């Protein structure tokens, strides 16, 4: 059995586990599925996951749209809503990229498992944080994400991988990759998207740029269901948003993979960066303003 088949089976198990856990919670709390417009959530899911498939990432844009539409009554629900709503669309992406890109089996599986372990511990911390700290953490995460998106859009990250030909990590580089992805998995639950920092790490460790895609997407696909467990257990997410974003997201991923062969998204990415920066400033202001009130 190949490493890719093993990873696909692992992701399939996680997908089933997540679906049973999530749908079970929705059924038990079906009277609460009135917390927002499901059609708005569906449009958000379609847009963010369509462009996520093309490499923009989904966490920061989803945060941006949820804030702009005032979908969430409390920012405390943001980490859980992000992890749960993006799980199935990203699992769908991962299956597609694992089969189409060549990368070392040990490298792929070990980095993916590391990210899932990191998310397990990260979600336990994030589920205990109050709204004020969530705003400060998420605002800071969006600032970091915007900086990484700027580096990616200007070609800086791609330049790091120029000339790289390796498709697998060995020795100390593999150890660094595992530890790095474990940390990135934990940070993902705080809203720092894994794509750009994982891409930079992979390039610096000498892997060929194309190898970043299955590692990034499979890592996110594995860590999101694991991280979601804690948020589902505590009910700290917007149920309507997760349903709409999931359904819209699956459609967005399918259309992006099936029909979009090439698309210049640089201009769009700059627009997203600008709005993300604004959203970050707003969240930081709200969180820090509350801090001042507490100490006043």
Secondary-structure blueprint of this entry?
Elements: H1 3-28, H2 38-53, H3 59-68, H4 78-100, H5 105-126, H6 131-153, H7 156-160, H8 171-188, H9 195-204, H10 212-234, H11 239-259, H12 266-295
Q: Report strand %.
A: under 5%
Number of strands: 0
Structural class, by secondary structure, is: mainly alpha
Instruction: Give the CA-based shape.
Output: globular
Helix content: over 70%
Give start-end ranges of low-pLDDT stretches: none
C-alpha-based Rg, rounded: 18 Å
Major sheet details: none
SSE series: HHHHHHHHHHHH
| Number of alpha- plus pi-helical segments | 12
Q: Average pLDDT across residues? A: 82
What's the end-to-end separation, in Å? 63 Å
Please give a handful of descriptors for the protein shown.
single chain; 296 residues; mainly alpha; globular
Account of the protein in words:
The protein is an all-alpha fold. It has 12 helices and no strands. The radius of gyration is 18 Å and the shape is globular.
State the gist of this model.
The chain is an all-alpha fold.
